[in-house]
Amino acid sequence: MSYVSRSLKNVFEAAGNRQKQARNRSLCAINAHLEPVSNTVAATQIVFQRPGMSVRSDAAPLRVHSSRKNHWYGCLMRRLVLFLSMLLAGCAMGPDYLRPHIDTAEQFRISQAEGQSIANLPWWELLRDEELQRLINLALQENKDLKQAVASVDEFQARSRIAFMDFVPNMQITGNAPAFGTLSGFQIPGFPTPFNYFGQTTLNWEIDIWGRIRRSNEAARADLMAREENRRAIVLALISAVAQSYFDLLQFDIQRDIAYRALSSWEESVAISRAQLQGGIISRLDLDQFEAERANAASRVAELERKAVQKENELSVLLGRNPVSITRGRSLTAQLVAPEVPAGLPSELLQRRPDILRAEQNLAAATARIGVAKASRFPKLSITGFLGVASPALSNLLLSGSEFGVGGLGLAGPLLNAQSLGFEQRAAEAQARQALAQYEQTILIAFKEVEDALVAVRTVNDQLQAQQQQVEALHSALHVANLRYQGGITSYVDVLLAKRNLFDAEFSLSATHRFRLVSVVQLYKALGGGWSP
């Protein structure tokens, strides 16, 4: 047996043991309460007092002994009270949901600074670019996926209320008026037929003995909570996507400026090399190398322009709008981030991340449906009845003698489909095991995402510092190469290599600036931060 099956089996066995203990305690309490009732019915002491007289303490009480009829009536009432008490206090069939035990470490593998988790911050305190805040607010109002999630919450809220209405009696009204007259041979007094004018009200009220309705309501409430957590997950993913797309745009802006500067520099180098070729100073090979670098810079400019427009289109869809130009706020290097990003405790993920809570609610709903399937295998007891009036003539419909009605208890149980209902229960148990496995897998993925984000936040600053030093060194190398070339010490090839290395390093530095911001956003998302405005 797998670990998942053993975990779910332990949950179900523990729930069944608690049900048996609670039922035994209820029966003992009921018996203890009803035991003196029969004695009181068999012998009742009554003291009569006349007006204006006091009751003597030694007054002889009048003892009234019950007859056989009263004794039978007392036994009947005793059993009725016992039955109703068991009915009202009885446990629903199927296992009660208990959150599975999950082993969590005392701290994350890549521990950060101690302090309050950044997940407790509102998103507008973490992302301080005013333009980015405006875009996020717009996305929260207009995003279509979010609107769909909100509508899904409304749908399951209505379904939860529909499930609750199963506790209420079901009443229907029926009326009939013969369209082509009546036939006297089919007129049965006091009974509605298609040849009578009649109106009737029917009643059907299922008594939830086995807890089918209660378990159905538990499943409906869990489905509703799962949809609510799904809405929170979409909000979390939406604002994370808006922030990352916005930072991508800022990265493309910086890289496009670098590509434009590189293109301008290479065009200047090509012009110089052409003049030198005509003067016989350099060979055709040198000119071809300069033109190749210029063409590479022009290709990068076109690529970055295309990426920027496509990213604006992607961001426009997140905003719920047709593709439009996106305004920018602060530059990529001017964005403010928290100097420290403590992650909090690992156990907080189980209470904070909406995808974990959604998976847990799905597990709770699947567990409740086991009780629904199990209770469906037992007979259903219901109170039924109908009341109405019927007459072959419309003028006599409301006269005395035209009314009819009947009421009683209905008992319906499975017969030929009993085996299929057993398979339904097995299917519900299998679905619960699937939900348990999905819940545990969601937790594993959540811890993995947090650890990935923590290591990214921890190492990105060192990477950024090293690349900044690299860019400074390559600036110095380009300056030295120009001086050596102007002094006739080296050829222009050294300048070409220095320029190429500097532009590549500046591209990498801008990507690292963007990654530093995105890693904080990813950590905030992985921790299940408070994204709601």
Task: Briefly characterize the structure.
By secondary structure, this protein is of the alpha+beta class.
Give the overall form.
Answer: elongated
**Low-confidence stretches at least 5 residues in length (pLDDT < 50)?**
1-9, 22-70
Specify Rg, calculated over alpha carbons. 40 Å
Largest sheet: 4 strands, antiparallel
- The count of DSSP E runs of length 2 or more, i.e. the number of strands, is 6
Quote the beta fraction.
5-15%
- In angstroms, what separates the terminal alpha carbons? 46 Å
Q: What is the average of the pLDDT values?
A: 77
- Give the strand line-up of the largest sheet: 3-4-5-6
SS class? alpha+beta
Helix content range:
55-70%
By DSSP (H or I, 4+ residues per run), the number of helices equals: 11
Order of helices and strands: HEEHHHHEEHHHHEEHH
Overview of the structural elements:
The chain has 533 residues and is an alpha+beta fold. The chain is 62% helix and 9% strand. It has 11 helices and 6 strands. The strands form 2 sheets. It has a 4-stranded antiparallel sheet with strand order 3-4-5-6, with no helix packed on it. It has a two-stranded antiparallel ribbon with strand order 1-2. Helix 4 (130-142) crosses helix 6 (212-278) and helix 6 packs antiparallel against helix 9. The longest helix has 69 residues, at 418-486. The radius of gyration is 40 Å and the shape is elongated. The model is unreliable at 1-9 and 22-70 (pLDDT under 50).
